[in-house]
Amino acid sequence: MAGNFSFDQLKKAVSSGEIDTVLACIVDMQGRLAGKRFLAQYFVDSAHDETHGCNYLLAADIDMEPVPGYKAASWSKGYGDFVMKPDLATLRRVPWLEKTALVICDVLDHHTHDDLPHSPRAILKKQVKRLTERGYIGYFASELEFYLFNETYDSARKKHWQGLDTASPYIGDYQIGITTKEEGVMRRLRNEMEAAGIPIENSKGEWGPGQEEINVRYAEALDMADRHVILKNGAKEIAESEGKAISFMSKYNYGLAGNSSHIHNSLWSADGKTPLFFDKNADWTLSTLGQQWAAGQLKYAKEFTWFLAPYINSYKRFQAGTFAPTKIMWSEDNRTAGFRLCGEGTKGIRMECRIGGADLNPYLAFAALIAAGLAGIDEKLELQKPFVGDAYQASRLPEIPKTLRDATETLAKSKMLKEALGEDVLEHYVHTAKWEQFEYDRRITDWELHRGFERY
What we know:
Blueprint: H1 7-16, E1 21-27, E2 33-39, H2 40-47, E3 51-54, E4 81-86, E5 92-93, E6 100-108, H3 120-133, E7 136-149, H4 153-158, H5 176-179, H6 183-195, E8 200-205, E9 211-216, E10 219-220, H7 221-241, E11 245-247, E12 261-269, H8 288-299, H9 301-308, E13 330-332, E14 339-342, E15 350-353, H10 362-378, H11 404-412, H12 415-421, H13 423-441, H14 446-452
Helix pairs in contact: 3-10, 6-7, 8-10, 9-10, 9-11, 10-12, 11-13, 12-13
């Protein structure tokens, strides 16, 4: 939960005029920052303790439409307030915005001041607490991919999202020459995120024209989720200030590679010094604990897929031969696998979940992976042998749910997630998934018009 700016430093910066604005942000169900811009002096004087927001923010869809049917918030309950409690440990400067600092807030019940159970950050904190109670630290890292366009969001909208000019005209995966053209945004992104306390290891071209990947240094799960959402928000703001646009859609173009968010995860001792997945004498040098953790994630992958792929569009990414997985299995260093063992033979050994798209909410995704891993440990599951070969062509392997409808059905039936997250929390997000499906089912798409306007 580390920012790079103490409250005392903030007070001094406000007094000197270096900082005049503080962003107090919660994370909504879609994984976006939402909140208020405070006059910095007012934040220092009183709002650092708490502020308030409308509870519809955790009961609305991506269009900010209040969704009927939630137990937690509704028109019949009047859409009251919740408490936004700044976590001052997350305080940081925002180098890409003038004289601005940012803090992430926990969402608390307005009456009891307890964590609001269906808040994404509270969901992850609950699972982190389960790790802590067992003497574990969960280290996570999420690799974000996105497309960079020589467009503004306004120009892309006017083109109806068609025929967009990507930052590079052809695939530049790992290619230095072509990605140099993208350095105006990417250099700023690396350096200014670093200055904001989000350590960036590297960026690279990906397997699509103008597609990028940026890698953030691993961290404890909650800290990593905070880094993830600030990075996504900041990337868009930096790009926009350069006259560019960024998209984190899982699949913005049928003919091009999708955007993933691969999630690396492992357990370490409570002091963060001993890797609990490394055993040089074990099969694959993966300890019994690590094998049980991985086996749990494999067993329950269908049940938590929605937390990795929350939208209709998310499922368009799961296509054979595109580096996106289609099967639930694990393998040693095999990019056709849903789960890949990385760092074999070293203390950095970890499991990489390759199912998630760049549109996921990291708090929900990390929480689901922790819950499944702990279930595997509790059930003392045995890890199957690693798959060898092209998983796309293996017909007998279990498949990742093909549609949002399929994923919602398995989510709703999950006894493991109901127990780990709480029945009301699971119901809240099942309702979210069903609403996304309902909204899509009643819309007319461009594909339908093109196919049927004349020919039906």
